[in-house]
């Protein structure tokens, strides 16, 4: 999607090899197609949704790079998603059309709240009104605090049991601890670790129910000199593909 972050993640991907600790993973056998950039995907969402729909016909897994979280709406719609799993510190249930509203917009356009799971919702980062709205919609919320006593595998299985099949997964990188994602303006101290989000990316890619993912809320111009946020975004791509 936005050219700057897409190019930054593309360049970061070149830092990594195809080697993996799991002998069943053979990255060199993958066929990867780059669909290019959309410089302003929000200017004409109808066109963006149709483009994503066309991409969906050509791929087993569609990966969208952002940019802000508003692209989740267009990608999920274009993929015909019937369920949604988000990794996000925030509910994204605000009114209007912005990076804070894609989940609400998807529900209002027909996605059932009971097939949405939100993982990593953070304390002190959301209005009580949005927590109440999530309960009203029937969304399953797995707070950041719940991840401290459960494995990623257990959390993921729980999410799949709720969300069902033909899923879109939103990786809002501000779900991570601020120390590892300085280029995410809304990230807070105490978010999930870089290793946890990489585990979840692998689990998402290993699940046939998942048809698409997005990686959002990275502002590469605000990254640390070592580009740790962009590098983590690239590793989420690789984890999903592996």
Low-confidence segments, given as residue ranges, are: none
Number of strands: 6
- Major sheet, described briefly? 6 strands, parallel
Determine the structural class based on helices, strands and strand pairing.
alpha/beta
Encode the helix/strand succession as letters. Answer: HHEHEHEHEHEHEH
Shape estimate: globular
* Helix content range: 25-40%
**Sheet with most strands: strand arrangement:** 1-6-5-2-3-4
Summed up, the helix count is 8
What is the average per-residue confidence, as pLDDT, rounded to a whole number? 94
Q: Estimate what percentage of residues fall within beta strands.
A: 5-15%
| Radius of gyration computed on alpha carbons | 16 Å
Distance between the termini: 22 Å
Oligomeric assembly: single chain
